[in-house]
Amino acid sequence: MAIESICGILTVSIMVLGKLFVPDIAYKNPEIKELSKELFNAFEKEMGDILCKPLKDNYRIEEKKM
Question: Where are the domains of the chain?
Answer without folding.
Answer: 8-57
